[in-house]
């Protein structure tokens, strides 16, 4: 299996565990991850996962890196020296999971106001994979129009909607379904859920 270089953004939308599990799965598979986390994303780590986020570098290594064979690089949102911020970097794509409506709006309008938005802009301009996993409900017309704009530009909109045909028994089963669908969108093999007909 060919190893990929992927950018991963985690925002302050509810569902931080989706981003955590995705990064762990990518690293478990030996892939390289360029990770970005918004300020609100750090707050959700604290609120939803009860993580102490005072020492962010240590937390990333302790909770995400673990002993997986992949390479993990953590980038601050003002650090534009990240390779993925340039179109000359031959990365394989980007995913923002979960994706807040604020970040989605910034990407849809080409704001490039921080590293995460800039990397997403690079994916769009270079015609590379960009997967956005929005986690919001209900959706208003602005949200829907921004998603339509991005879909028309080639981004894949993958809402965090777990399936139930695989008869989930635990919260992990539901999380793994969404993360598995995200990995499918990135063309990364996995065995996180039982597929229809299997």
Structure summary:
This protein has about 200 residues and is of the alpha/beta class. The chain has helices at about 15-30, 40-50, 55-65, 100-110, 115-125, 140-150, 170-185; strands at about 5-10, 30-35, 70-75, 95-100, 130-135, 155. Strand 1 (about 5-10), helix 1 and strand 2 (about 30-35) form a beta-alpha-beta unit.
Number of helices: 7
Distance between the termini: 22 Å
- What's the total number of strands? 6
Strand-residue proportion? 15-25%
Rounded Rg: 16 Å
Provide the CATH architecture: 3-Layer(aba) Sandwich
Helix fraction? 40-55%
Just give the CATH class.
Alpha Beta
Biggest sheet: strands side by side, in what order?
A: 3-2-1-4-5-6
Indicate the structural class.
alpha/beta
What is the makeup of the main sheet? 6 strands, parallel
CATH topology: Rossmann fold
Q: Any idea how many domains? A: 1
- Write the element-wise H/E pattern from the N-terminal end onward: EHEHHEEHHEHEH
Shape from CA axes? globular
User: What is the arithmetic mean of pLDDT?
Assistant: 96
